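Please review the protein record below. Tell me whether the encoded fold seems credible here:
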Amino acid sequence: MSISLNGLEFVQVESTTTVMGTTKGGWVYAGQRPCYEAKTPTFYVMPSPLTDGEVANAMGVNGDGDEQQRATETLTSLELCELADHLMKSPAFDEAVNQLGGQWELRGLTQAEWRAARDQNVLLLENGLTERLADAPSSNNRGAMMDGRPRPNELLGPAAAQSAAIAVHPRNETITAMTSVPLDRPLPKVVARLAFTPVRTEEPKRVPENTDRWKNVRSELLWTTLLGIVPSFLIPVLRGMGDYATEGWVNLLFGGLCAGFFTGAIWRPRRPVLRYDEVESSSMSVAQ
């Protein structure tokens, strides 16, 4: 099923549960944790980013030429919102809403919606391009919306004028990375698209902001001891240098701590997935 609004085609994305982030425990993966479930309802999305011609037609401006068929890189996040507001005032939008029932809106995709659409092979984004999202930028998944609605911007300073974006690797389309882009400034190779999505009116579920820090400290002490400190003292003993294990204990301890720190960067036990049904509405303090 598809929907057409002022020449823009939207393809259906089925409701689904998408696992966001990673369960890998190394601290280099901290920006992708905690791993959580995002439940998105059925929505509609443009398969490809907006082109100059589509923007012109949607705004009622005539455009021609080959450049009109290329993905536009001049659309800012603020202008994308203006385009969405313009389309939501059109008779075609009212007709589509009446046909579907409920409350609907046009906006950019959220990260959860983008992943769901791509997993269902509905969404295309060329290698090397970055797409603007409706979410606020963040350093990790804490505070993320678990129902796929846009993450509000609760930041101060320069980050308050940024929006989240997702970039595809220049050569490997399976590799993506989260980044941020200015709200009011276009950038080369940064594109945008619209989604026709139901308005979430229920109380939101969010990934908890806090974690069990004492549990993390205990785990780090355990693995640093087993993978760093113990081998550091055991190696000279096994090599017949038992005296150095007592006389040079400071050096061995320091070396063990360094080894433990290095192993912590690339490996620690996998973390659990935060399930949607495990979190209370508006919960911001439940520890994982």
